[in-house]
């Protein structure tokens, strides 16, 4: 088995996705140097923080956390590139696991019932072969034991706008997400998982879609990275 592994390493060398250096056998998905330097985002409070304040105006979200700081100019940006564009679903699962372990330290999962990934359009999901948010959620599920529920769908609004009230019209303009929540998952605490949070619009739209489907749902958000 080890000989096979050696041949595999020789033919397909494993590289650190952050710095591009060859990984040693003892190193997992990142080199030791990059693993130590991960730009962790230190969340002070899960019930009142900058992520929550970003979405509070538009959606009723109870708790929020994140794992890493997202910076376009940092080499750690390559982690998001890897999971989105380079087919690294394995990396997404691993990052989800790390993020979940970190959040467990301050009790983020205590009240959570399920993980809900932000969906891709069907076309993009097909092109990519997987949804990176779902892979992150799967990694989180391995640590927390929570189920991953694909309750959200990304849709295009086809209802003629003129037939709708202005409130619904406004919601539809932003609301490309739709949720269906089965009876047994109503009134539960749902954690929306995504890769990057910038303006918070996607997470807030997803939160609203879930709340439209079940006003008793308790919504939390967990983007892997935050670009604040
Ligand atoms: Zn590295």
Explain what you see:
With 228 residues, the protein is of the alpha/beta class. It folds into two domains: 1-37, no CATH class; 39-226, Rossmann fold, CATH 3.40.50. Helices cover 39% and strands 15% of the residues. The protein has nine helices and seven strands; from the N terminus they run αααββααβααβαββαβ. Strands 1, 2, 3, 6 and 7 form a five-stranded parallel sheet that branches. It has a two-stranded antiparallel ribbon with strand order 4-5. β6 (189-197), α9 (201-213) and β7 (218-226) form a beta-alpha-beta unit. The longest helix has 16 residues, at 89-104. It is globular and about 65 Å long. It starts with a helix and ends with a strand. Bound molecules: zinc ion (ZN). Zinc ion binds at residues 16, 18-19, 21, 30-31, 33-34.
Please describe the structure with a list of short key phrases separated by commas or semicolons.
single chain, 228 residues, alpha/beta, Rossmann fold, five-stranded parallel beta sheet, two-stranded antiparallel ribbon, 39% helix, 15% strand, binds zinc ion
* Count of helix runs: 9
* Number of domains as seen in the coordinates: 2
Mean pLDDT: 90
- Give the biggest sheet: 5 strands, parallel
- Tell me the total number of β-strands: 7
Q: What is the SS-derived class?
A: alpha/beta
Q: Tell me, briefly, the overall form.
A: globular
Which parts are unreliable, with pLDDT below 50 for 5 consecutive residues or more? none
> How helix-rich are the residues, as a percent range?
25-40%
Report the bound ligands by name, code or SMILES: zinc ion
User: Using only CA atoms, what is the Rg?
Assistant: 19 Å
Q: Please trace the helix and strand order, writing H or E for each element.
A: HHHEEHHEHHEHEEHE
CATH architecture of the largest domain: 3-Layer(aba) Sandwich
Strand composition percent: 5-15%
Cα-to-Cα separation, first versus last residue: 46 Å
CATH structural fold name of the largest domain:
Rossmann fold
Quickly name the level 1 CATH class of the largest domain. Alpha Beta
């Amino acid at each position: 088995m080890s000989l096979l592994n050696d041949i595999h390493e020789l033919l397909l060398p494993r590289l650190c996705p952050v710095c591009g250096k060859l990984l040693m056998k003892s190193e997992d998905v990142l080199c030791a140097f990059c693993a130590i330097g991960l730009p962790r985002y230190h969340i002070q409070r899960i019930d009142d923080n900058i992520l929550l304040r970003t979405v509070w105006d538009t959606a009723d979200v109870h708790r929020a956390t994140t794992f890493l700081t997202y910076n376009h100019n940092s080499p750690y940006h390559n982690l998001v590139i890897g999971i989105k564009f380079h087919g690294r679903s394995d990396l997404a699962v691993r990052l989800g696991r790390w993020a979940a372990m970190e959040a467990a330290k301050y009790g983020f999962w205590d009240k959570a019932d399920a993980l809900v990934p932000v969906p891709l359009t069907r076309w993009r999901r097909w092109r990519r072969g997987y949804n990176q948010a779902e892979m992150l959620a799967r990694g989180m599920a391995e640590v927390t034991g929570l189920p991953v529920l694909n309750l959200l769908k990304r849709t295009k609004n086809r209802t003629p706008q003129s037939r709708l009230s202005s409130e619904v019209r406004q919601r539809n303009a932003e609301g490309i997400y739709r949720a269906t929540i089965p009876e047994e998952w109503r009134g539960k605490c749902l954690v929306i998982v995504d890769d990057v949070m910038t303006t918070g619009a996607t997470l807030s739209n997803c939160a609203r879609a879930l709340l439209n489907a079940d006003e008793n749902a308790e919504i939390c958000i967990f983007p892997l990275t935050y670009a604040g």
